[in-house]
Amino acid sequence: MKKLYDIAELQDDTIKLTLSRLLQKGHRDAGEMPIYMFNIRRLDGVMVGQCNLLAGHDPKMYYTGNIGYGVWECYRGQHYGLRAARLLVQFAKELGMTEVYLLIDTDNIASIRIAQHLEAENLGIVEVPSGNLEYLKGSRQKYRYRLQLT
User: Counting beta carbons within 10 angstroms of the beta carbon of residue 43, is it exposed (0 to 12), middle (13 to 18) or buried (19 or more)?
Assistant: First the structure.
């Protein structure tokens, strides 16, 4: 199992995730677990997006999930988000996590497809309560997916 600072980079044959920031005590709106933030780069070094892993479970992260990612618009359609998600899933396993949750806006077709490619279980739609940080960002409903890490 990896320790808190043992990770600097994760990669596959197309991208690498380079640790950009680590919040050891989490975020007040997402819980007290560590949050690993990565830049998504092609192997030639070009940055194509960012992703993160909330390494644990806390009731505050019910509407955010464990894995988040964003690929810059000009790099979309090349499966960088799926590749990043797979690397984050592997990292979560190495940290000893037994499951991860993905919370996806109901109109985010690309992220829904990523959850399906990961073979995550769709637990249904949750209503985001007003006052929640995700609500303030514009989310009203999200699909809640669970991926068992066995």
Answer: exposed
pLDDT tens-digit series, residues 33-43: 999 999 999 99
State the Cα–Cα distance between residues 122 and 112, nearest whole angstrom.
Answer: 10
Average pLDDT over residues 111-119: 98
Distance CA 75, CA 83 (A): 13
Cα(98)–Cα(33) distance, rounded to whole angstroms?
15
DSSP letters along 7-28, please? Answer: -SEEE-SSEEEEEEEEETT-BT
Q: How many CB atoms lie within 10 A of CB 51?
A: 25
Burial (CB < 10 A; 0-12, 13-18, 19+), residue 124, is exposed
Q: CA separation (Å) from 48 to 20, 69, 118, 137?
A: 14, 11, 21, 22
pTM beyond 0.70: the answer is: yes
**Quick one: tokens of 17?**
């995730």
Residue listed under structure tokens 């940080």: 133
